[in-house]
Amino acid sequence: MDPQENPPRKIVPIAPAHVPMAVDEDSTEQVISLYAAHKKIYPRSVQGLFAYWRWVLVFVTQLVFYGLPWLEWGQRQAVLFDLGSRRFYIFGIVLYPQDFIYLTAILVISAFSLFLFTAVAGRLWCGYACPQTVYSEIFLWVERKIEGDRTARMKLDAAGMSLEKLFKKAYKHIVWVGIAMWTGFTFVGYFTPIRELGMEFFTGNMGSWEIFWVFFYAFATYGNAGFMREQVCKYMCPYARFQSAMFDRDTLIVTYDEARGEPRGARSKKADPKALGLGSCVDCSLCVQVCPTGIDIRKGLQYECIGCGACADVCDTVMEKVGYPKGLVKYSTQNAMAGGWSREQTWRRVLRPRVLLYTGILAIVTLALLVSLAVRKPFKVDVVRDRAALARIVAGGQIENVYRLQFMNAAEKPLHFKIEAQGLPGLKLVTQDDVLVSPTESRWVSVRLQLPYDAAQPGSHPIHFHIRSYEEGEAVVGEIDEKSVFLVPR
Amino acid sequence: MSDFTGNFWHLFVAGITLVGIIACLILLWFSGKAKAMTANDNTTGHVWDGDLREMNNPLPRWWVGLFIITIVFSLVYLAFYPGLGNQPGKFGWTSAGQYDAEVAKANEQVAPLYAKFLGMPPEEVAKDAQAMAIGDRLFMNNCAQCHGSDARGSKGFPNLTDADWLHGGSPEKIKETLVQGRIGMMPPMAAAVGSPDDVRNVAHYVLSLSGSPHDSLRASLGKAKFGACAACHGMDGKGNQSLGAPNLTDDIWLHGWGENAIVNMINNGKTNQMPAQAHKLTEGQIHVLTSYVWGLSNVKAAAGK
Fold first, then answer.
1. What domains are defined for chain A?
2. pTM of this prediction?
3. Is residue A348 within 8 Å of residue A377, measured between CB atoms?
4. Mutate to test the interface with A, among B35, B47, B296, B299 (most CBs of A within 10 A)
């Protein structure tokens, strides 16, 4: 291509720019350290619609997490991932490692759910369902019950050591450790039968790996929910950083109505803000005090915002108290804020291509998973040719091939397998044609096939094993064909 | 521990490792001291593409703590594990050593099981379902490569299920085969038999012994020349297990059936070897395998499983 046809490349030099802000009187340059000391955040407790839903989600997710391993299904734990024997029990389903594709499907579904929720309503996951948020919420609740709300906690931390402080701190940490240990124990209970694990715990017979994982998970819970909190979201979480790819100007975010709120300022309840030249924001700073990540939502959308809506809740309370309309801080979109859209106008923009695409893919993958699970046969068969002999000639001039068949029973009852070899005229099965496999067990069986001499040309011939699985009492469970080859020597 | 003959590379590796760790520490220390100029709005003042401003967000200080933990960890690790040149570390750990320890531990766990089987005669072990399950695994891992996963062998590798034994099928003989291995040697016999035509005649006589299709005229001529073979295979051709000479009368053809195969064998001979397993398997494993192989051709007796 002629280089002259190329449009000239725009080159912007990297150079210190003379930013107009330098005119600002407090914008002199300053010297800072490369590392910032951790500023502890003392979120104030908050009530309201979004706080209510956050607690609903806390209860729902934790009821599932703590409760699920205790459910029984027949004679076993309903949900158990038995890594040792490589069987994964999920209610009525028994999965083998070969069923890994289902995990992939679940991960794809999880990812697209995240994308969808994020595109529609921003960091819903972060603010309401993420374990980091949920456990921080639980740990904060404990902290509040023992040490008091924001101001009391700040005062306690600032005070010198006293018997009371020691007691409160020790009490809090003991409760935290208790919750953390229970969480670690529950986590391990998904991989080791939790009732036996409980017995082993009390009799001191827990295996060393189980002890390690209980303590590891407990330590992670204690550290992340008790100390790291918003630091995890700000500095560690990768999802926080790539979600901007799912955002657009129609995504719901927690916004501050700057046009209405500014100029902010304290005023008497009776005073008319218009006469004072003030906006609706009374500058009570409660939105900053309740924020679990310690930001000021009035500065606009910031990467630290996890979209929990605590500031919206508290601002509504204040607006109500001073008799202004609610919604100075609310869930809205950038387009809606700019255009002053009504709620209906905002919601209409939800059905945009990005959202429809995420929904479509999510629906397809979910449907595929459900259909695949519904038509899944509770057994598998693998055919492996014998590794020693390609073919042999046996008495009567028969050509014999040897195969090893692995029968994997994924049902919780014994299954019979009826074997037939098809695909070549004269092909005959000379070993047992019926194999019994115990519940959830797998079994290798060697199988011999014979073909009369001259019945086929020398070389490789495609054949298949037709396997019919049935229960005791002839109820057919399913039939499958497994491909292989029959070799005729020269 | 390693393939270097001189000491230089060990010192080089150890030096680079330690210098790297110390350099990391010094870098951390300097970056902790260093200050950056920043505008009050927390930007560096760098602007790209007209409106992209570079922020100047400091790293949280606890992150430095994580760096220091990794440095402490690396020093502790190097003190206890190999990593500094040819220093073996305090624990003297090697992957081979870990493997040996795991094998020893596993052997210790199964020792009582094998002790139980060793105390039983092979005929009894062959009836024990657990022993046979172990035997099946041992066979798959150590024998199936030649004898096939169904133990029926293939050309040159004997079928172990047909009650036809080259060296004897009693448990004692099977164990002997497993422990010491076997070498089956058929010498080239063409010179002893006579002319190429004589060789063909003998081949037909051999075929006639098992009632296989043959030329009866050639067979009757070959009978006179069979004397050369009788030293090992016996006058009646029924073989000799103490020599490992196969029975020629049973229509089992380990090295191929038909005139050509037999002529070839007489002319060229063949040496066939079963490798000794004593150095590979433990006494208990060999005992279980003996019982398993014995059970293969004594199905009735082993039907108890």
1. 41-376 (no CATH), 379-488 (2.60.40.10)
2. 0.81
3. no
4. B47
